[in-house]
């Protein structure tokens, strides 16, 4: 009986593994189709200047509406795109869409607005990202200094010199570079000296418990003062309450992003939000 159970269990595990592998292949195929048919879309989350409360920029966040399964979060499909070689195509289309959208908002009377786009480490491996950024700037005609590229610390670990070379060329184009999810990776500060970043985004895990957790509060305070003394802008991610926003203002944090201000918004909703900020009587 034990043997039979054993074999049954083995077969069951095997069937489960096959099912998982098949499931993964189905997701990959559907993602490839979504990229080829250009059905991925972007949402835009406002980036807020804390002292004034004004929107100064927006982060483009990729969205995938699967025809049968509904919305699949980027936390799930970005790693899949990275593993199966789709991230370059995905990254290229995100850059183009975001740049064209920014151009439209500039033309609609918001010429100062910044656009932030996430790049993953894999997009640096063959250096294709440089050409993609140049193309996005060329087709949109936006000024390079209105575009900000968000990298995580993992990008900087991958292949020291090759990645540094690409980053320097991106800087030479005039685009801005920011470090996303700061504090969650290997926080070697060496790269802060090697490349002139423009902004540090403090990871939401530190920001969320700012009020109740003295250790997180100390980390946030420390990162803000590090950024300011290096001459970098600093943004707190994941601000969900007015209490946290208030504390961040008190700590001299310049920028914030989070559900307290806005969720990621569809472009037409973001446009309304921008419009509502115009001083009344503005006619230009
Ligand atoms: P991220 O770049 O750190 O983006 C911020 C994430 O935090 C977004 O999740 C956003 O919706 C969420 N968020 C913003 N405010 C709050 C808040 O107050 N509370 C909470 N709990 N969450 C908040 P999302 O859209 O699910 O994206 C997750 C991650 O997927 C992003 O993290 C980024 O690493 C990646 N990602 C998204 N779009 C792209 C893309 O186009 N390319 C690449 N390479 N990665 C992307
Ligand atoms: Mg980001
Ligand atoms: Mg982040
Ligand atoms: Mg993140």
Automatic annotation (TrEMBL):
Coiled coil: none annotated. It comes from the Bacteria. Residues 24-278 form the EAL domain. This is GGDEF domain-containing protein. It comes from Rhodoferax koreensis. The chain holds residues 566 to 849 of 849 of the full protein.
């Amino acid at each position: 009986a034990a043997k039979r159970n054993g074999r049954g269990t083995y077969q069951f595990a095997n069937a489960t593994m096959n099912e998982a592998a098949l499931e993964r292949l189905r997701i990959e195929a559907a993602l490839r189709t979504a990229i080829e048919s250009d059905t991925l879309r972007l949402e835009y989350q406002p980036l807020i200047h804390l002292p004034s409360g004004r929107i100064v920029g927006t982060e483009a966040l990729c969205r995938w509406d699967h025809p049968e399964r509904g919305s699949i979060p980027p936390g799930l499909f970005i790693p899949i795109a990275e593993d199966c070689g789709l991230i370059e195509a995905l990254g290229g289309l995100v850059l183009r869409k975001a740049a064209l959208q920014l151009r439209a908002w500039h033309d609609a009377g918001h010429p100062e607005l910044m656009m932030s786009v996430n790049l993953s480490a894999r997009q640096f491996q063959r250096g294709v990202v440089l050409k993609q950024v140049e193309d996005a700037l060329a087709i949109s005609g936006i000024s390079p200094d209105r575009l900000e590229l968000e990298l995580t610390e993992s990008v900087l670990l991958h292949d020291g010199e090759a990645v540094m070379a690409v980053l320097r060329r991106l800087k030479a184009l005039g685009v801005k570079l920011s470090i996303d999810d700061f504090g969650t990776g290997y926080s070697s500060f060496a790269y802060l000296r090697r490349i002139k970043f423009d902004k540090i985004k403090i990871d939401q895990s530190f920001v969320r418990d700012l009020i109740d957790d003295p250790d997180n509060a100390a980390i946030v305070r420390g990162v803000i003062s590090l950024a300011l003394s290096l001459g970098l802008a600093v943004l707190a991610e994941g601000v969900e309450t007015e209490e946290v926003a208030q504390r961040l203002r008190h700590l001299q944090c310049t920028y914030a992003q989070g559900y307290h201000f806005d969720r990621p918004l569809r472009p037409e909703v973001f446009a309304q939000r921008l419009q509502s900020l115009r001083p009344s009587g503005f006619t230009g």
